[in-house]
Amino acid sequence: MRSTVCAVVFMLVGAGPATSFAHHSVSGQFDLTKEVTLKGIVSGVDWGNPHIYVVLDVPEQNGTKITWKLETFPPAQMKRAGITKELIMGKPAEVVTATIRPARDGSLHLGYLERLTYQDGHFYQLSSNEEEQLRRRGGQ
Amino acid sequence: MRIPLANSCVLFAATVAACYVVSHDVTAQGPGASESAAASTTTPRLPDGRPDLNGTWGPPGPGRGAQLKLPDGSICVTNCADLLPPAAAGRDGGAPAAQGRGGTRGAPPRNFPKYKPEFLAKVKELDEGQVKFDTALKCQPPGVPRIGPPAKILQTAKEAVFLYDDLNGPFFRVITLDGRPHRPVSDGRTYLGDSIGKWEGDTLVVETVNFNEDTWLIDNGAFHTKDLRVIERLTRTGDKLTYQAISYDPAVLVEPWEGRVRNLQITDQQIDEPLRCEDRDLEHVVNGAHHDNVR
């Protein structure tokens, strides 16, 4: 019985095709030393290579909204993780919390998606491996 | 507002660690463990007696893209290594963050081709300008050996077809096994070259030539000439496949460049046609930085 419970709680996905993931550097485009938290509604997901973009509409106090484009993994990596476009979209009009890294070139409303947390508390942690490497080096 | 990540991680780690121990013990004591091990050492063969390489091949264990799943539906895809018990994090092909690929500009990958001194400046220039010069970053075919081992192999006595569901697109290579020579160069040079294969014992040896010069051997400016010759070796043992590519380009390399050995295992997962590749990022990259290519 215990093993059944744990199989649900802790699961490492088995082998999949040897798809390649590498592309440009995340740290070359996004500032991994800065973190921004946004609250908004996922209005779209551009599910394409080499990187998926999550479109997040963030409401402003004046009633308008700002649309952020948040880069994340390639589709193959998302698929291996079991994360679908529908899961990212969440429930209709659901306000989600996005932790992102802003663009380094000053582009407004462009970021790298690190974590997406939904109203019931569940989340998708999608941070860059480079971030981990930088953190282990003490940042740079 | 910041997410209280530290608290949730502590709970997450404790839960994962506790359950890993229990599930590990149950698995180790399972009655079918020895039978499975015996079955996986039998190498299937085709009617001609050659090892059967047919199938979809992926990294052993969780590999890249491994993740942790929680009962509430949460999924941690990367940077989860700190949440794993040491035994799990250290397994072959473990959590991505534990792989330590290195790989920013100025920190060449550990296994980098050795160029003749007169070409080091060119490598440096290409390295520093990879975002500008590397066609693989612009959704072009990555070439051989950079494309890595095939995701799927279709094999008959006369040919083997390598299929790739690459991030840059769907690619294929037909490797003839009937003893014919390479096509003439006049047929054209291509990204993935012209391949012929032969068997050396139970190892499939693939020789590829007739490349164009638009691709690199690997990241960091590792260019090659049109005379590049790549030898790939694939050996199946049970459900495992080892793959290694060696690149010969004596005009620019001091010695043949041996790519790292890739250990793969057969999987029942199917490959899909990759989705459209359209780069929208390079214009935003501010310093040309890039990371190593794991291909």
Q: What report would you give on this structure?
A:
The complex is a heterodimer of chains A (140) and B (295). With 140 residues, chain A is an alpha+beta fold. Chain A contains five helices and six strands; from the N terminus they run H-H-E-E-E-H-H-E-E-E-H. Chain A has a five-stranded mixed barrel. Chain A starts with a helix and ends with a helix. Helices cover 17% and strands 25% of the residues of chain B. Chain B contains five helices and 14 strands. In chain B, the strands form three sheets. In chain B, strands 1, 4, 5, 6, 7, 8, 11, 12, 13 and 14 form a ten-stranded antiparallel beta sheet that branches. A two-stranded antiparallel ribbon of chain B has the order 2-3. Chain B is globular and about 50 Å long. The interface between A and B is large, with 71 and 92 residues. Strand 6 of chain A pairs parallel with strand 3 of chain B, so a sheet runs across the interface.
Can you lay out the helices and strands and say which pair or pack?
The complex is a heterodimer of chains A (140) and B (295).
Chain A: H1 2-9, H2 26-29, E1 36-46, E2 53-59, E3 65-71, H3 75-81, H4 85-89, E4 95-102, E5 110-117, E6 123-125, H5 129-136
Parallel strand pairs in A: 3-5
Antiparallel strand pairs in A: 1-2, 1-4, 2-3, 4-5, 5-6
Chain B: H1 5-28, H2 33-40, E1 55-58, E2 68-69, E3 75-76, H3 86-89, H4 120-128, H5 130-133, E4 152-155, E5 159-166, E6 169-176, E7 194-200, E8 203-209, E9 216-218, E10 222-223, E11 229-237, E12 240-248, E13 257-258, E14 262-267
Antiparallel strand pairs in B: 1-4, 1-14, 2-3, 4-5, 5-6, 7-8, 8-11, 9-10, 11-12, 12-13, 12-14
Index terms:
heterodimer; A: 140 residues; alpha+beta; 5-stranded mixed beta barrel; 5 helices; globular; disordered C terminus; B: 295 residues; 10-stranded antiparallel β-sheet; two-stranded antiparallel sheet; 17% helix; disordered N terminus
> How many strand elements of chain A?
6
The main β sheet of chain A shows up as: 5 strands, mixed, barrel
Q: Strand tally of chain B, please?
A: 14
Largest interface: A-B, 71 and 92 residues
Largest beta-sheet details of chain B: 10 strands, antiparallel
The ordered H/E elements of chain A are HHEEEHHEEEH
